[in-house]
Amino acid sequence: MYWHGISRRVDRPGNALGLSCFERSYEGRGEPFATDDRASRSSVDRNQEKALNSNTAKAEIERNHRSWIASLAPYRRASPLRSTIEIAVTALPFVALWVLLALAVLNGHWWALWLTVPAAGFLVRLFVLQHDCGHGALFARRRANDWTGRVIGVFTLTPYDYWRRTHAVHHATTGNLDKRGIGDVDTLTVREYHARSSWGRLRYRLYRHPAVMFGLGPAWLFICQYRLPFGLMRAGLEPWTSTIVTTVGAAIPVALLMWLMGPVSFLMVQLPITLMAATAGVWLFYIQHQFEETHWSEGRDWDFQNAALNGSSHYDLPRPLRWITGNIGIHHVHHLAAKVPFYRLPEVLRDYPELRDTGRITLLESLRCVRFVLWDETTNRLVSFRQAHLSA
């Protein structure tokens, strides 16, 4: 992990990243502890450096005495034009790729099936747009966000109003050991795992197996589970309306396309796109919170800002993947200020460079995260089954 001296906890008021002002004054210059050669510098250089460090430290102190949430408030302003363009450059290529795939399948051009990959990528990006609508971030007006999210939900098979409520619970409880179970990946502590029966431990191991987590699980979630408002069945009419209307809204074009193309041809186009996009979406969500040095705490110690900053990762993807995933990898900033539109998240990293290395995970490093499956309350990190067994 690339932490560069950033503490995993916010222990001092007024210091959102847990860094001393001295350490932060050198952050980004590649020399957080480079002091050995200063004695040999000229007095002029030392005075200039002292003045520079003093000004930097003052700026950092002033910034950190403000809440990060307040600091990021100016970035919450969405541009209706930019948001509309983002919808167009996502939806239109997706539809075009889908049509090309359909024509290829109907004419036996199987070589064109590679178009499934970019089509799935654009479907993931559509989900990110829907996600922003759920936070009221894509447009200034709630009605515009809600109806855009509902329409996109027909393509992503995600009932917007139902998902929005469960996702709001996720944001309000992420990293809270006392409020697990809705909108998150089920995570046991080492103690809870050892306290389970053999059957209970086997069930958890199966649930956490990559073939289930990133294979069967995503298919079940988007194709089956989202057809009923699980978890909110007694929460009023809205969750039921959301799931039923989305299912009917998706079933109508599916039935029409099956009639035009034939069921087999339609499924050869749509099913791989859906499964690939679902797996990618679950993978992204997993890496955003299931990394080794994430943050969990009991309810009495839980703090929203601390959980947002330290319990969410910065998935630093290559630029093309960053674009197709709608900057959702800048997840720690998103949890700090969920109403910041996805296209403004890079601005936050530009203006607050100290956030770049907070929870940073590269694409290669993310592959290791699959084995971190249990929260160790003694070391305050996620561990593997093997590590948990050795510590028992």
From TrEMBL:
One of its GO terms (biological process) is lipid metabolic process. The chain crosses the membrane at residues 85-105, 111-128, 206-228, 240-260, 267-286. One of its GO terms (molecular function) is oxidoreductase activity, acting on paired donors, with oxidation of a pair of donors resulting in the reduction of molecular oxygen to two molecules of water. Residues 32-56 are annotated as: Disordered. Keywords: Membrane, Transmembrane, Transmembrane helix. One of its GO terms (cellular component) is membrane. Residues 32-49 have a biased composition (Basic and acidic residues). Residues 109-354 form the Fatty acid desaturase domain. PANTHER family: FATTY ACID DESATURASE (PTHR19353:SF73), FATTY ACID DESATURASE 2 (PTHR19353). This is Fatty acid desaturase.
